[in-house]
Amino acid sequence: MKFVLFHLMPYRHLDFVEAKKYRSAWTVLPNSMYDPAKGAEEYASYIEQLVSGERLGFDVIGVNEHHQTAYGLMPAPNLIASALIQRTKTVKIGVFGRALPLVNNPLTIAEEFSMLDNMSKGRLVVGFVRGIGAEYHSSGINPAFSHDRFHEAHDLIVKAWTQPGPFAFDGEHFSLNYANLWPRPVQSPHPRIWIPSQGSSETIHWAAAPERKYPFVVTFSTAEAVEKYLKSYSAEAHNFGYEASSDQLGWAAPIYVADTDERAREEAREPLERLFNDYLPMPWEMLIPPGYTSLASTKALAKVRTGLGVERQTLEQLIEKGTAIIGSPKTVRERIERMREKTGLGNMVCLLQFGTLSDELTQRNIERFATDVMPHLQDKKLATREAVPSA
Predict the structure, then answer these.
(1) What is the per-residue pLDDT across 39-49, written as a single tens digit (0 to 9) for each?
(2) Whole-angstrom Cα distance, residue 23 to residue 40?
(3) CA angle 267, 357, 331 (to 5 degrees)
């Protein structure tokens, strides 16, 4: 099993009382509530936390992309990745979440990632997403074109990485007379591509296709939904004529480890509830703008996200639903292992800083997880899992 030390880089100094006057911490929250001096210190602390992942044995240290929000201070994750590359030697660097439909020229993403792959000497792992619904409001991109722009941008980026240039690319949304990538990536044929998602049926089918076989990572979902979507991916692979490997199946979740379940809950309560009740919520028209998903996926997402980001969630509810993993080393190990046995899970994306969790508690959490949880799952052979039904 492989482990990713993942970070959202939230703005922890947010005035939550003042922020409640606005519909969401996304898009409409005035940037006058951001203090650049405090933000600069946040970046320094967060980079240190991620860099420690190499020393502690994580397979990947990962960042992502979000825009116009206190939820995550990484509108340009390639800049954070560049800083991490300079501070590390062997750990892989994951940029999980470049929102392809939001750019006007996807070739710039191909160029940036190729540079990072060269600078890291082949340590880059990338994640492609469509972006949170709110980001279509902040970018001005029509959400009805989200799927088409995503697929077209993906095709252009992969072609630029793998085919000699210059060549012309003439799509519905992106058109270039000269696509001629300098530099080319170090990894051949290109950096590994992961697909983080909350379970869109179209995304699962697309990622599992034999010509891609992209690792699929279920994010911020209940344990029931994680199991359902990972099994759906395996079923799609089976229908395509192959069996999905554990390396193609991932789960991203907030995790907190302490000596006992009681202490873990006490220390994680306020930061975790801040994440789900203050940073994450947005009204449905921001989360799923018209045209962003198919009707079937919209209904499925509404069912899965019952309460999540819509109504207030307590720590107990989040633990009970399996959205967060909080407890002693034994409790955390068992929760992950149970999902692994049910689904064949091979990639665990660990959000070990969340909400307002302090630097001290974050570093303690990272080290405790690396010492008392990770080694038990890295080397343990996977038990025979439940049969995967055909879709």
Answers:
(1) 999 999 999 99
(2) 26
(3) 45
Residue 322, SS3?
coil
Q: How far apart are CA 215 and CA 204, in angstroms?
A: 10
Across-strand partners of 327? Answer: 257
Q: Tokens representing 183?
A: 């530099």
Q: Is residue 121 part of a domain?
A: no
Q: Which residues pair with 193 in a beta bridge?
A: 126
Q: Token match 């009204």: residue? A: 283
User: Cβ distance 22 to 29 under 8 Å?
Assistant: yes
Q: What is the per-residue pLDDT across 194-212, written as a single tens digit (0 to 9) for each?
A: 999 988 888 999 999 999 9
In this predicted structure, the answer to whether residue 267 has a pLDDT above a threshold of 90 is yes
> Buried b / exposed e across 132-169, counting CB within 10 Å, b at 16+?
bbbbbbbbebebebbbebbbbbbebbbbbbeeeeeeeb
Q: What does the pLDDT look like over 220-230, one tens digit per residue? A: 999 999 999 99
3-state secondary structure at position 349: strand
Strands (E), 16-123: 60-63, 92-99
Bridge partners (DSSP) of residue 192 are 125
Give the structural domain span for 274: 2-100+191-378
85-94 exposure pattern, b = at least 16 Cβ within 10 A, e = fewer: beebeebbbb
Is residue 112 in some structural domain? Answer: no
Q: In whole angstroms, what is the distance from residue 215 CA to residue 92 CA?
A: 15
Q: What are the φ and ψ backbone dihedral angles of 354, each rounded to 5 degrees?
A: -150, 150
Q: What is the CATH number of the domain that holds 89?
A: 3.20.20.30
Q: How many domains does the chain have?
A: 1
Q: Which two tokens stand for residue 208?
A: 């599992």
* Residue 286 to residue 299: CA distance in whole angstroms: 16
Q: What is the dihedral of CA 242, 246, 249, 252, to 10 degrees?
A: 180
Which of 100, 102, 106, 114 lies closest to 174, judged by CA?
106
d(CA 51, CA 187): 22
Is 361 contained in some domain?
A: yes
Judge contact between 376 and 333, C-beta under 8 A. Answer: yes
Instruction: Report the DSSP pairing between strands 347-351 and 2-6.
Output: parallel
